[in-house]
């Protein structure tokens, strides 16, 4: 996407939206954006962003619109996008960066004249910080970017968003919206809940000062995200409530079993910690797995299957709107398994 002459619109210039805008500017992509904060508007304009007044103006100027706002704000923003699409008679591709996908896709279906223009997305990148001042143009490098492939997503538009993600350094994981929400409940939302719980236990401990003085890297790593943006954790938990509740119930039962083991029950304590080592080995193996990039033409089902195997798209090529397949370059270490 570097220097393509296309215009990318960004609605919201916080950590993710600001990082995306900066990454695109560094690649000579024209960025038009809107945000409510006057200081951020000024800083973004100084950085080279074309700052406009509202969503309507972004939709009118952009070829691809990224909604980089908190999940609770997406319904209202999608309604504004829908009104702008109808008013302008244009159909730029629209995507988002929210941490849940099924509810957002449903909102798009309600709000947009043609839901096929919407590609639900979620870059698996972030920090415990927030705002334009925390934005980093390298935020997405080496990270995964989930893109939902469920109907009615237009696969040609899907390829456009995939190309955007790859351009800023990410690898794209194709996924179904419901499968995405179940997976991130485990690997993203549950960690936030455990971080909040562990940090709250420290705050409530009668010997909190002593415990804090003795806390080392394991506790700092565990609770890092607990000190982040005050609404991010609650927003994610609420938006993905059912899937997260299932994960929390599972975690609670495992912790209860460990407590029984410590009291002399079964299974033995070693089994719980051994299961943890096996799980970490799965994660390490997935991150270490290598595969030779290969070209492929994949339809909707093929893309979803690639994602389930842990495969990623590392290049996407334009195929035109209404395409039944997309031309992609993939790494697929799970194919042999």
Automatic annotation (TrEMBL):
Q: Does the keyword Methyltransferase apply?
A: no
GO MF entries: NAD+ binding; prephenate dehydrogenase (NAD+) activity; prephenate dehydrogenase (NADP+) activity
Q: Name one GO biological process term.
A: tyrosine biosynthetic process
Q: Which UniProt keywords apply?
A: Oxidoreductase
The protein's matches in SUPFAM superfamilies, at most eight in alphabetical order, are given as: 6-phosphogluconate dehydrogenase C-terminal domain-like (SSF48179), NAD(P)-binding Rossmann-fold domains (SSF51735)
Instruction: List the InterPro entries.
Output: 6-PGluconate_DH-like_C_sf (IPR008927), NAD(P)-bd_dom_sf (IPR036291), PDH_C (IPR046825), PDH_N (IPR046826), Preph/Arog_dehydrog (IPR050812), Prephen_DH (IPR003099)
Oxidoreductase as a keyword of this entry, yes or no, is: yes
Q: Which residues form the Prephenate/arogenate dehydrogenase domain?
A: 6-291
Family indicated by similarity: Belongs to the prephenate/arogenate dehydrogenase family.
Its name, as the record gives it, is Prephenate dehydrogenase/arogenate dehydrogenase family protein
Provide the species name: Iamia majanohamensis
């Amino acid at each position: 996407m570097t220097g393509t002459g296309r215009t990318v619109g960004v609605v919201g210039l916080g950590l993710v939206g600001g990082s995306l805008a900066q990454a695109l500017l560094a690649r000579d992509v024209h960025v038009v954006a809107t945000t409510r904060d006057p200081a951020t508007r000024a800083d973004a304009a100084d950085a080279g962003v074309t700052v406009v007044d509202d969503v309507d103006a972004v939709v009118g100027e952009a070829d691809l619109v990224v909604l980089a706002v908190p999940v609770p704000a997406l319904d209202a923003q999608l309604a504004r996008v829908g009104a702008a699409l109808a008013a302008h008679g244009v159909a730029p591709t629209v995507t988002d960066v929210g941490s849940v996908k099924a509810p957002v896709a449903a909102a798009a279906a309600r709000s947009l004249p043609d839901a096929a223009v919407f590609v639900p997305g979620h870059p698996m990148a972030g920090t415990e910080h927030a705002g334009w001042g925390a934005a980093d143009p390298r935020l997405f490098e080496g990270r995964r970017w989930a893109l939902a492939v469920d109907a009615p997503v237009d696969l040609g538009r899907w390829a456009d968003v995939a190309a955007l993600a790859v351009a800023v350094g990410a690898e794209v994981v194709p996924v179904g919206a419901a499968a995405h929400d179940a997976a991130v409940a485990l690997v993203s939302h549950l960690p936030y809940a455990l971080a909040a719980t562990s940090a709250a236990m420290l705050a409530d401990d009668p010997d909190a000062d002593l415990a804090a003085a003795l806390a080392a890297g394991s506790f700092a790593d565990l609770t890092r995200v607990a000190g982040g943006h005050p609404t991010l954790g609650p927003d994610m938990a609420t938006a993905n409530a059912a899937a997260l509740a299932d994960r929390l119930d599972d975690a609670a039962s495992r912790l209860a079993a460990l407590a029984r083991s410590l009291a002399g029950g079964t299974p033995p304590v070693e089994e719980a910690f051994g299961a943890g080592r096996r799980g970490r080995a799965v994660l390490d193996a997935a991150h270490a797995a290598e595969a030779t990039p290969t070209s492929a033409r994949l339809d909707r089902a093929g893309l979803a299957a690639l994602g389930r195997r842990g495969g990623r798209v590392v290049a996407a090529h334009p195929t035109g709107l209404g395409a039944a397949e997309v031309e992609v370059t993939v790494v697929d270490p799970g194919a042999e398994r």
